[in-house]
Design goal:
Number of strands: 14
CATH architecture: 3-Layer(aba) Sandwich
Strand content: 25-35%
Helix content: 25-40%
Number of domains: 1
Structural class: alpha/beta
Number of helices: 7
CATH class: Alpha Beta
Radius of gyration: 20 Å
CATH topology: Rossmann fold
Distance between the termini: 18 Å
């Protein structure tokens, strides 16, 4: 390990990697400290489609999300592994209002009757980025290391352990912030999804108000992610097969072609949520280290990633790298 870094980023999920890479773009020497590699993070399990879910405050979410949308769209255009722009359809049982986030995606249009599955009479069409995390996260990590970034895999029980390692500490610890900071407003939001073979689908479809629970179908290159649950305050990370069967049933309402799909996997992840994303500088009494928090993104980790990283870099560069 090198003797000096300008910044230490705690956490190697999408928030930590985006923050670290953005700091590098500003000329910083960055070290990531994490208790697990990106492939073992909650981010790796995510469906990872741009869509604001369980995150606030709304005005900042819109700003962060708009910036992230533009960054991911540019990455898709550049051929970054795992990033595609996905045609999307949001289903409704009653005529919908324009979503509050519509401006971030360049607007939405009403779906044509021919675009709706049986049983639905209303829908909205739009295009959003989708990240296949098994491809995208390794690419981000490779980019970080190629720019001279260091990785240090170890468990941290106190932020004080990192106090002497760099002038700036960026806390992207997710659920870990609950114990590290005593922030009991951070809670898990359990998400269960089902991974199935792709029967030829090319459009993401979602119904946030399905009578059986929220439902979404996100086609990827070789599979589809079906979801899912938003179980607030639930720490259980074990798969419930009955929940998986219910997800399959309601997703077949959205995309009848899934009757031909083969179940490949059942997956559970715990999203780190709080009433509002915490992205701010924290001046601790007696500490000369600049602490910046970036956690509590709920189900919007990929959706807010690059916008939040932009603001992390802005807070860090008030004094610049040492």
């Amino acid at each position: 390990m090198a003797d000096h870094a300008d910044a230490v980023v705690l956490g190697a999920g999408i928030s930590g990697l985006a923050s670290a890479l953005t700091l590098q773009e500003h000329g910083w020497r960055v070290r990531i400290v994490a208790d697990r590699p990106p492939i073992a993070s909650t981010s790796y399990l995510a469906a990872a489609v741009w869509f604001p879910t369980r995150a606030g405050p709304r005005d900042r979410v819109l700003d962060w999300g708009t910036h992230t949308y533009a960054e991911l769209a540019a990455q898709a255009s550049a051929g970054v592994p795992g990033i595609v722009m996905r045609e999307s359809l949001m289903l409704y049982r009653e005529p919908p209002p324009e979503p509050w986030w519509a401006g971030a995606v360049g607007g939405v249009r009403a779906a044509e009757p021919s675009e709706l599955p049986p049983g639905y009479h209303h829908g909205l069409r739009f295009v959003v980025p989708l990240a296949e995390m098994p491809s995208y996260l390794p690419w981000l990590l490779e980019r970080f290391e190629a720019a001279g970034g260091e990785l240090d895999f170890r468990r941290v029980s106190s932020l004080d352990e990192l106090a002497a390692e760099a002038p700036v500490l960026v806390n992207c610890a997710g659920l870990g912030a609950r114990d590290l900071l005593g922030d009991t407003s951070v809670v898990p939001v359990r998400g269960q999804i089902v991974r199935v073979s792709n029967p030829g689908l090319r459009m993401s479809v979602r119904d946030e108000e399905h009578p059986g629970g929220r439902a979404y179908v996100h086609p990827r290159e070789h599979d589809c992610i079906l979801g899912g649950t938003l179980d607030e305050g639930v720490w259980d990370d074990q798969v419930d097969l009955a929940t998986g069967e219910a997800i399959l049933a309601r997703c077949r309402d959205l995309a009848p072609e899934l009757a031909r799909a083969t179940v490949l996997d059942h997956i559970v992840g715990l999203r780190p949520a709080r009433p509002e994303v915490r992205l701010e500088r924290d001046d601790r009494p007696g500490s000369t280290q600049r602490l910046i928090h970036n956690y509590g993104h709920g189900g919007s980790g990929i959706t807010l990633s690059w916008g939040c990283a932009r603001d992390v870099a802005a807070l860090a560069t008030e004094s610049g790298p040492s």
